[in-house]
Write a structure and sequence with these properties.
It is a single chain. The chain is an alpha/beta fold and 356 residues long. The chain has 2 domains: 9-142, Rossmann fold, CATH 3.40.50; 158-352, Alpha-Beta Plaits, CATH 3.30.70.1230. It is 42% helix and 24% strand. It is built from 11 helices and 13 strands. The strands form 2 sheets. Strands 6, 7, 8, 9, 10, 11, 12 and 13 form an 8-stranded mixed β-sheet that branches. Strands 2-1-3-4-5 form a 5-stranded parallel β-sheet, with helices on both faces. The longest helix is centred in the C-terminal third of the chain and has 30 residues, at 233-262. The model has no long low-confidence stretch (mean pLDDT 86).
């Protein structure tokens, strides 16, 4: 079944009916037209259920001039993205600059040239469609990187080239105990639903504690605290450990659905947290790259997660030094992990000081 494609809607605002008639005659073959004989009437039309795609607006009108109408349109989140073109007899360069300063996208002087009006209207509708397309594309691809990194890139704080820098971070790895065996016997569609529900909860915890969800690795999550924004090494480490405890606290709410699909096997997590210098930046090729953290601290957090017992948060000694006095921590016997020659002192975090 074919769909109906509506022509763009153009709103004409001018207190002179003859001017509205001329503009309507120029545009009506290619566009739907609405007219308003005052600024107030134009604003009321924009409060209706169907917004115009573009507005042609006179400047010199009684009671409310076009400049004030444009300011009000640009001050509303509902109408700020509607392109406004001033159509006016005020042809001085200073007048034009004033019109553009309040948010208009273009300035057409009277008496109008029909060809110029059609060209400018077509141009700004095309620009609007292109901008909307880019915004939709951006929202689509933004879900493939963390919100924190995406925002930092948009603000120009995180470079987009293949460069890196050294920063002190706290890194958290969280993993599901026995997930590989479980995934072999559960239907893929059910496993996907279960895992995505779990990731949604973990992501919310990360966001609440201002961490950056670096990546999903199978059923594991890697989270960094201290990049792209930092609260300072101590506060970043405290936020990481609080996030780890909240991840554990979120498990009971997930258990019913998890056990129903897993055949009675409970959801159990183990978490490793380490603090220290990391290399952070864009790694890969010009064709495809990823923004991530690398280095011994990342490897250590991963190793601690691997050796942590079920339902425990295991932190490195460097992390303990940063969070000491904030949490109940139980020292463990020195351990050896792959890739590190010396024995490591670790602690299990059982809760925050002051918790009941």
């Amino acid at each position: 079944m074919s769909t109906i494609e509506f022509k763009p809607l153009i709103l004409l605002v001018d207190d002179a009916p003859e001017n509205l008639a001329v503009l309507s005659g120029v545009l009506e073959d290619n566009y739907r037209i609405k007219v308003a004989t005052s600024g107030a009437k134009g604003l009321r039309i924009c409060e209706g259920p169907v917004l115009p795609d573009l507005i042609l607006l006179d400047v010199m009108m009684p009671e409310m001039d076009g400049l004030e109408v444009c300011r009000l349109l640009k001050g509303s989140s509902r109408t700020r993205d509607i392109p406004v073109i001033f159509v006016t007899a005020m042809s001085d360069a200073q007048d034009e600059a004033h019109g553009l300063a309040v948010g208009a996208v273009d300035y057409i002087t009277k008496p109008i040239s029909p060809a110029v009006v059609r060209q400018r209207v077509r141009l700004h509708l095309e620009l609007k469609r292109a901008r909307q397309s880019l915004e939709r594309l951006g929202r689509h691809y933004q879900s493939y990187i963390s919100v924190e990194v995406a925002s930092s890139i948009q603000r120009g704080e995180t470079p987009s080239g293949l460069i890196s820098r050294k920063r002190p971070l706290t890194v958290l790895f969280v993993d599901i105990v026995g997930f590989t065996a479980l995934s072999d016997r559960v239907h893929p569609a059910m496993m996907t639903e279960l895992l995505n529900g779990y990731f949604e909860v973990m992501s919310e915890v990360v966001s609440r504690h201002h961490g950056t969800l670096d990546k999903f690795i199978g059923d594991a999550c890697m989270v960094v605290f201290g990049d792209p924004a930092t609260l300072g090494s101590e506060q970043d480490a405290i936020a990481a450990v609080r996030a780890a405890l909240d991840m554990m606290a979120a498990v009971p709410a997930l258990q019913h659905d998890w056990m129903a699909i897993s055949g009675g096997e409970p959801l159990r997590l183990h978490i490793g947290v380490a603090s220290g210098p990391c290399i952070v930046g864009n790694f890969g090729s010009k064709r495809q790259m990823t923004y991530t953290a690398l280095g011994a601290t990342v490897n250590l957090a991963s190793r601690l997660e691997n050796v942590a017992a079920s339902d425990t948060v295991l932190i490195a000694e460097e992390t303990l030094k940063l969070v000491e006095g904030q949490f109940h921590c139980q020292p463990q016997a020195p351990i050896h992990v792959k890739g590190i020659d010396r024995p490591l002192n670790t602690h299990i975090v059982t809760g925050a000081l002051g918790d009941p």
